[in-house]
Structure formats: C-alpha cells, structure tokens
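Let us practice reading a record.
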Amino acid sequence: MTHPTPGGAGLRIAPAMSTSTPVSRRHLDWNILRHGIAARRHRLAELETSMVEACERAAVRGACRNVRIDDWKTWDKAAWQRHLEAAARLETDYLPQMRRPLRDIDRFERLLALPMAAEPTA
C-alpha cells in the first residue's frame, strides 16, 4: 500500500504477515526509506554540481590566461568575485530545487528512527 506524503513522496507500508495480525504490527520498510534517502541525496548532489559548474564558468569568463577553472589556486580576486556573484544570482534558481530533497531526507531519516521502522523480515 502506498501513502502519499505532503511533499509528494510515496512511502509504502509493508503489509502485516497474516490477515489475523493486528494493524499495529505493521512496519515501515527500511529498504524503501533508505532508497528514498539515497535517491534524494543523489538529486541534491546533481543540483549542487550543476550550480558549482555554472559558478566556475562565470568565474573564468573574462579572466586572464593564468586562471584555470580546475585549479582554484590560480584564481585571482576578480575570478573569486565573479564566482560569488554567480552563486548569489543562481541561488534563487537552485535553492528552491534543493530544499525539497533536503526536507524529504530529513523526513525519511526521522521515520527510520521510529521503532516501527523495523528491518524487513525475509
């Protein structure tokens, strides 16, 4: 059975072992919660990487030949300033997209801490 959560993420509650087992014996499936956490961490990493790449491209644009995008030690003050300006500008685009996976990760981790989130039986 799948129950939608307010954030749109679906969680499945494992069915009871038999039809005579009381409802209180049901549990959340750890594997589903862990998979949900991993998927959201992966999405968050993709968003962070995309934002950093955009900031680095902005930093190197118009920089002298000695500034290399892959070596921050070569960056001058102007390159760092362009990087920070790009980060401030892109924050309005990326931050809302990053908040949802962060909220979901927090919610799923709190569910894992519940006593009813028992390891699934084989």
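A brief commentary: The beta strands are 2-4, 10-14, 27-28.
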